[in-house]
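User: Fold this; tokens only.

Assistant: Input:
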Amino acid sequence: MNAVVLAVAVMLVLSLLRIHVVVALLIGALVGGFVAGMGLTETITVFTEGLGSNAVIALSYALLGSFAVALSRTGLPKLMVEKAIVLVGKEGESKKKTLSKVLILFIILMISSFSQNIIPVHIAIIPIFIPPLLHVLNELQLDRRLVATVITFGLITPYMWFPVGFGGIFHEILQTNMKDSGLTVKMDQIPTAMTIPSLGMIVGLLIAVFITYRKPRQYEDRTTGMTKTDDISYTTRSIFVAVLAIVATLFVQLQTDSMIFGALSGIIVLYFSGQLKLNTSDAILTDGMKMMSYIGFVMISAAGFAAVMRETGEVETLVKDSAAFIGNSTALGVLLMLVIGLLVTMGIGSSFSTIPIITTIFVPLAGELGLSVMATIALIGTAAALGDAGSPASDSTLGPTSGLNVDNQHNHIWDTCVPTFLHYNIPLVAFGFIAAMVL
């Protein structure tokens, strides 16, 4: 069996058996290295050397977590929760309101979507805004698997479709790697080509909302691990400072293309405004880093896993073997390329990192199959995005879990990864296939 396929399969099976994701990634990497003939020493060396490639991302999330916790001290999350409670009704009345669930889901969808573009702090915002809302979710008896699918939709669809914030990064990586592989595309072609696949995400969301998870689900009201907002007050000035810090973070991030310095600028604004006190700032910022440390460790481990997968050389082998199997069948070729993209992203947990891996082979293969430029963009973009939902090592699944499991009633694999995999990867394969065939 192909080493990459086997390694990803081992990692996924172990994760489904509730083995810790980091341990599953380590064992999966060892299996892949052994099967590829790398040996124990070489596999460990490659894995260790690969850990550093996601160090920037881990530090970015740590600082964004610190910024998010510091931002919570301004009272902005408390204000948002209060407004949400007003929208869904008073305690005891919320179950009687037909539109309450729709309103709260819409709020969560906006928060997660805006974290990708308008306020690009990515998943660091989730552990701050979601835990205070859990009491409201419990009152409404909302299935947290539904909430996870809503958040994941907001984390993925904007970067797939819109060239703003993280979407601008995704589209730029796609354009650059396609050019390096011999196919020049314009940036304004990418949103158009990704429209049909993005519609697949919308279909998956609608199925989750109106069919799969429409029944009420009961949870206990627990305080363990919950974000406490009762002791946090807010004023007009504190909210103004919070907004100013967010604007500073956005501006610096866009100017420097660095989440690290974007988060740093927001923290500096909070320091100089007096909202972040010197005598308490160390504890507050450390708490934020601790909050995001789990995600950082998983992302770093995923980088080591990805390094081993690349070193085996069997991603290219997988693609070439698939190409030989395809023959002249365009439909079969498109389907196999989408499946390969799914396997790669499920393993390394990053659609952004999948693009360079698959583009080198997919561009000439798409040319041999007679696919148009727009079809090739849609194919590669979809193949990269496939697996971001559902991967145990993806920040698009780790983020929702970090907010929904603070009271230990939401399992990362079975309540986030499996639901998002089923509701988004299946429609993405279908709509990505349609896009590649009709564009």
